[in-house]
Tetratricopeptide repeat protein (Pontibacter amylolyticus), 377 residues
Amino acid sequence: MKKILMTAMAAVSVQVAVAQNSAVNSAVLNHKNGTLDKALADINKATEHKKTQDKAKTWFYHGVINQDLIGHPIYGKLATEKTPEVALASFNKTLEIDGENGQFGKMVPERMEMLYGQILNQAVEFHNSQDWDNAIAKYDMASMVNPKDTTAVLYAAYASTAKQDYASAVKYYDKLISIGHTTEDVYKNKIQLQQAIEAPDDVVMASIAAGLEKHPNSVYLMQEELRYYLKNDRADEAMAKLDKAIEADPKNASLYAVRGNLQERKGNIDEAYNNYKKAVEVDPNNFDGFFNLGVLEYNKGSEFNNKAAKMDYATYKKKGPALEKQAIKHYEASLPYFEKALEIQPEDQATLANLQRVYTRLKRTADAERIGKKLKN
């Protein structure tokens, strides 16, 4: 009798297990047939029962069914804001149980890639409607799905910047750098944001130094470094660093242009001029060299003009015309530099504005009007 009773109990136990396994199988079949509401109800039961809640198959299909609700034309209404997160957790649990090479574990990567795209699309929709908080939350979730992909992190930085949460944006740029996305723009944007939140000079300078390690020829980064050197009374250090860099790389036109900029800031105009000239000799297409040569010549012309303008009438009659002739000479000298700079960068607004001023000074009205049409208001 006792033996018969035990056998009966075992039979009940088998029936329960089979019933629960059949819930998983029923969920798979309903999913295959497209009845996702029934599939969801079945798989939810399976995740809660002790006989199936630790099975990789259960959690894989729990992830699949929840994922397929997202954006579904009929059953999409069953999805919630948490559905992508539920799918992600289910796929992660599948890997935890089954490993990467298990029957269900090895199917997870393809599903994760699909999930990444779905979440990223949701983030973009929020981004386009300027719902920054939800966009950032979705970008964060997308990044959790694919930690090595940089797109979601980059756009989270953009969204945080648009939201004016600059401190968070800096953290996203740090994350980009940590996963190998180290373009010049990443460092440039990070530094500008650090400046916006008034980060300590040593923090900003550390970012500049890190950027220069990756982009040693970046004019922006070099100029920012010089600016901080000057701000902190370290101009001699900056000059020594530039001299050493030029000695190591004498064919680098950008270095001469930056050294010219430093000399100009220190008031050494002749030295600045010589360095800009050297920059365009080394590289006949060095925009900064030509632009700054044009600016120096134009400024010299303006100095003569200003002196004449400040004279009283009697003094002007004697000395003014000569000063104005000197001014014209320098305006004429600036012209080929600005024209060459515009040839190199045809859309540069600063060059266009300066060229319009020069043409106006030289009474070349038609040219001034032609250039004026290219200026953006």
User: Anything to note?
Assistant: The radius of gyration is 34 Å. Confidence is low (pLDDT under 50) at residues 1-20. Residues 2-33 form the longest helix (32 residues).
